[in-house]
Amino acid sequence: MIIGVPKEIKNNESRVGMTPAGVYELVKNHHKVFVQSTAGEGSGFFDKDYLEVGASILDTIEEVYACSDMIVKVKEPVEQEYSLVKQGQVIFTYFHFASSETLTRAMLSSGAICIAYETVEDSDGSLPLLTPMSEVAGRMAVQQGAKYLEKPKKGRGVLLGGVPGVAPGRVLVLGAGTVGTQAAKMAAGLGAHVTILDINMKRLRYINDVMPSHVVTEYSNEFNIRKHIQSHDLIIGGVLLKGAKAPNLITREMLKLMRPGTVIVDVAVDQGGCVETTKPTTHEDPIYIIDDVVHYSVANMPGAVPYTSTVALTNVTLPYVLALANKGWYRACEEDEALHKGLNIIEGEIAYSEIVETFGWEEILA
Ligand SMILES: NC(=O)C1=CN([C@@H]2O[C@H](COP(=O)(O)OP(=O)(O)OC[C@H]3O[C@@H](n4cnc5c(N)ncnc54)[C@H](O)[C@@H]3O)[C@@H](O)[C@H]2O)C=CC1
Ligand SMILES: CC(=O)C(=O)O
Ligand SMILES: [Mg+2]
């Protein structure tokens, strides 16, 4: 098979879909790999590193898409790439379709096979290709939140750890999954008081067992959310309904309950966000303010730490890339239930029911 690795063109996205280690394995399995020139530079992998393990380097993104049976990348294709995607081509990447009807329609009309990292699902319900990036984003959420709580950044002017004689800052985490757990761990490490909410009691029991006593679990309901947003300095959104639009746990009207300078980091933005006023932002221009509440909602947070993120991501994607290349997408998905769940669009038809429900469409499921 011919596999293409384009350079990411989303704002400040410096990750790359494959490292030289991945090329090495594919070439060993008799596949041909085309990497766009400088695609790996932002993550510390140079053209010569790819050439050494048998890749060919192409100058333009057009050439990479044109010659490849399968494209392996990181983020969803952006508008400039829509017309490059070919009928029958496999695109293996994050898509987050539920957050963009435009992207969904573009991929439907391309005739490609879209396999989404974020919906590949193991039999225990875990999401092996989302987890490492959620680990990065959950940890980063506290770093970013702490920064925007500073007064010159428009925050309340609260130091999360506090100091002797002054109470620490308060962090409210919505969702006790991967993002939420990592965020709680980092915030607790800084000395902040943490409240974490979920509707899954198993997750709350786990958090209660492993975290220090200044991380407090509570059930997620509107009453508790309304209460806590009034007294917390930093709110981190890490809620997920797999493949679907995230629920709006904080409505526009609830912003008025918060103190001026409260910071919301809505990590769930890539699935539409769990705050009604969330809209996607970029690393270049990451925040906006509504009702004196600072909103940070960058949809590709791990893109800012590509040295860590590229390796963490490609560690887990490579076995699937190899299976898709060795067996072809149909057999690879037929033989692996986890990968099968990654199928979102197959040659013009939707294969993941939550997308249909999100947009209220009546297309027949593939
Ligand atoms: N912005 C970015 O750069 C990134 C965003 N993400 C996104 O972060 C989100 C969370 O991802 P993960 O932590 O991996 O998901 P996860 O599936 O591990 O955790 C989600 C949690 O939300 C909980 N939940 C569902 N409904 C809830 C409610 N009403 N109240 C409270 N909790 C509720 C679930 O029970 C689950 O524990 C996803 O949308 C993911 O795509 C992940 C990585 C990077
Ligand atoms: C998961 C995701 O959206 C990201 O890593 O950018
Ligand atoms: Mg207010």
Summary of the model, kept short:
By secondary structure, the protein is of the alpha/beta class.
Structure classification = alpha/beta
Note the beta-strand portion: 15-25%
CATH architecture designation of the largest domain: 3-Layer(aba) Sandwich
Q: Please, how many domains?
A: 2
Number of strands: 15
- Report the uncertain regions: none
- Can you identify the CATH superfamily of the largest domain? NAD(P)-binding Rossmann-like Domain
The percentage helix is 25-40%
Average pLDDT metric: 97
CATH topology of the largest domain: Rossmann fold
Any ligands, ions or cofactors bound here, and which? 1,4-dihydronicotinamide adenine dinucleotide, pyruvic acid, magnesium ion
Given this structure, which CATH class of the largest domain is correct?
A: Alpha Beta
Task: Please give the largest β-sheet.
Answer: 8 strands, mixed
Number of contiguous helices: 13
Q: Helix-strand pattern, N to C?
A: EHEHEHEHEHEHEHEHEHEEEEHHHEEH
Distance between the termini: 25 Å
Describe the overall structure:
The chain is of the alpha/beta class and 366 residues long. Helix content is 34%, strand content 17%. It is built from 13 helices and 15 strands. The strands form two sheets. The protein has an eight-stranded mixed beta sheet, with helices on both faces. It has a seven-stranded mixed beta sheet with strand order 9-8-7-10-11-13-12, sandwiched between helices. It is globular, with a radius of gyration of 21 Å. Residues 75, 94, 118, 130, 133, 270, 300, 302 line the site of pyruvic acid (PYR).
